[in-house]
Design a protein that fits this description.
Order of helices and strands: HHHEE
Oligomer: single chain
Number of strands: 2
Helix content: 55-70%
Largest sheet: 2 strands, antiparallel
Structural class: mainly alpha
């Protein structure tokens, strides 16, 4: 289960690269047109690829968690 959680977390971190890329230097108060123009000026091929890779990494983590068949504890009872 620890491996599955690590893979899911890694996928989430890879997916955050897009957010970090577009948040860098973003004005605190700007209209939608200015923000869209800023995103278009920063468009590249790497961040969408990282988003897709991160999504598949997370799917892999969920698959690992689902195929292991380990019970998840839910308070005082076991949930299968």
């Amino acid at each position: 289960m620890l491996l599955a959680l690590a893979v899911i977390t890694a996928g989430a971190l890879v997916r955050q690269s897009d957010r970090l890329h577009f948040a860098r230097g973003r004005p605190a108060c700007a209209g939608p047109a200015r923000l869209i123009a800023l995103q278009r000026s920063r468009a590249n091929n790497l961040t969408p690829a990282l988003l897709l890779a991160g999504q598949w990494i997370q799917i892999t983590g969920h698959t690992i968690a689902g195929t292991r068949g380990e019970p998840v504890t839910g308070g005082d009872r076991m949930v299968h």
